[in-house]
Amino acid sequence: MTVSARAIAVLRFHGTLCERDCLAAVQQLPDVNAYYVSAEADAFPKQTQAIIVPGGFSYGDYIRPGAMARTAPITRALKRQAEAGTPIIGICNGFQILCEVGLLPGVLLKNRDGRFICRDVRLGVVSRRSPFLRKTESTPLRIPVAHKYGQYFVHPETYASLQANDQIALQYVNERGAADDASNPNGSIGNIAGVTNGAGNVLGLMPHPERRSMPWDRGQDGKRFWESLLV
Amino acid sequence: MKYRVRIAIKPGVLDPEMETLQRLLKRSGVSDIQQVVHTQQYDICLNESVPAEEAERVVRALAEDVLANPEIHEWTIEAL
Questions:
Q1: Considering only CA atoms, which of A57, A56, A58, A92 is closest in space to residue A75?
Q2: Which of B66, B71, B72 shows the shortest C-beta gap to A71?
Q3: Is A91 in CB contact (< 8 Å) with chain B?
Q4: What residues of B are in contact with residue A114 (Cβ under 8 Å)?
């Protein structure tokens, strides 16, 4: 995938919160046309070249974070787009949704210490297969997390296949770039902060790149995710 | 027609709430507890006009697709 994506859909479920930040983060880039798409819609606009599933509390986190999204009309269209190779990024609750609808492996459990965490983390980029990670050369990236259900979990055999297929995209690391336990904010297996699907076009991550994207933010490391789309 | 779906975390999957509960129980002097498992229970009523086979299919799909996540949960379905 080398076509730059400039028509970007920002998906909105009932209870999504971070859609305005995501829209602003991509709209600041040259010649980008970004627009909201409702979860009640049956399809994405034809011109859509990339999709952002923002964070928040879709459907109030009822049942489990992301679980109710399986019943939303847009979910079928999202699966069709994923199969067609459209770059898709799910952030925080968006990551939980992508896992729950089966577009990404694994599940996000309650944090190891059971508490909500809101703070900066350091991210090491393990694989740049996602179109959102092409321009993330210098690492670690400084980006905040804000979640209670961020402990990425897969069974050991799935973990082995993630490693073998280069699907581990992002890890929580220390200032030297090492994935040690002290840098793991939530107990995620293998310090995983983000994974891709087998094809690499669908990425999910717990940290919020849209919160380090604007000129007034405390750092702009997140902007590289959006600039990656234009490469 | 009524069904009861019970959903619990699979063995081996960390449940921080139950771990904390067990720790607190131990601290308060209850030392004989081996494990506490948190179970969610859903009672689902369907219209009487739905044939039993169809009703079971609907409840099974609901349990598997929405109420539980097969990656971390195990569940039982019981006709009431």
A1: A58
A2: B66
A3: no
A4: 16-17, 20
Each domain of chain A, given as residue ranges in start order, spans 7-229
Rounded Cα distance, A157 and A162, in Å: 9
Would you call the peptide bond into B11 cis, given omega within 30 degrees of 0 as the criterion? no
Domain assignments of chain B as residue spans, ordered by start: 2-79
Number of residues written out for chain B: 80
In degrees, rounded to 5, the angle at the alpha carbon of residue A98 between the alpha carbons of residues A55 and B44 is 100
Classify burial at B19, counting beta carbons within 10 Å of its beta carbon; exposed 0-12, middle 13-18, buried 19 or more: middle
Q: Which CATH class is domain A7-229?
A: alpha beta
Helices of type H across chain B: 16-27, 52-62
Q: Is B1 helix (H, G, I), strand (E, B) or coil?
A: coil
Instruction: For residue B79, give both structure tokens.
Output: 């006709």
**Rounded-to-integer distance, Cα B67 and Cα B42, Å:** 9
Query: Mapping DSSP to helix (H, G, I), strand (E, B) and coil, where does residue A21 land?
Result: helix
Owner of token pair 């299919």: B57
A210 included as an active-site residue? yes
Per-residue pLDDT of chain A in tens (231 residues, 90 and over written 9): 445 789 999 999 999 999 999 999 999 999 999 999 999 999 999 999 999 999 999 999 999 999 999 889 999 999 999 999 999 999 999 999 999 999 999 999 999 998 999 999 999 999 999 999 999 987 899 999 999 999 999 999 999 999 999 999 999 999 999 999 999 999 999 999 999 999 999 999 999 999 999 999 999 999 999 999 998
Q: Assess if CATH 3.30.1280.10 describes domain B2-79.
A: yes
ipTM summary value: 0.77
Contacts of B69 in chain A (CB under 8 A): 64, 67, 100, 107
Residue B80 sits at the chain A interface (C-beta within 8 Å): no
Contacts of B71 in chain A (CB under 8 A): 106-107, 153-155
